[in-house]
Amino acid sequence: MTRPVSTLLGLGLALASGAACAQTATGQVTVTGGADRLCAIGAPRVQAGSSTNLGVVTGQTIDIAHLADSQTFSTRATSFDIDFTAECNFSHKVELSSDRGGLWRIATGQVASAFAEGVPYHAILEWDGAQSTLEATASSVVALDQTLEINAPAHGPLVVQFRVDPGATDKGAGAPLAAGTYQDTLTVTLGPQ
Amino acid sequence: MARQLIALAMAGALAPALAHADTSSSSSVNVTYKLTGSVDKLCSLGTIGSKTLNVGTMINPSNGTLGSVSSQNTSVTGSWCNTASTISVLATPMIAQSFTGTPPGGFTKAVNYTATVSGWTAPPASFTTNGDDSGNGSGATPDAQNQANPETTTITVGVGTFKSPNTADLLVADPNYSGNITLTLAPQS
Question: CB of A113 within 8 Å of any CB in chain B?
Answer without folding.
Answer: no
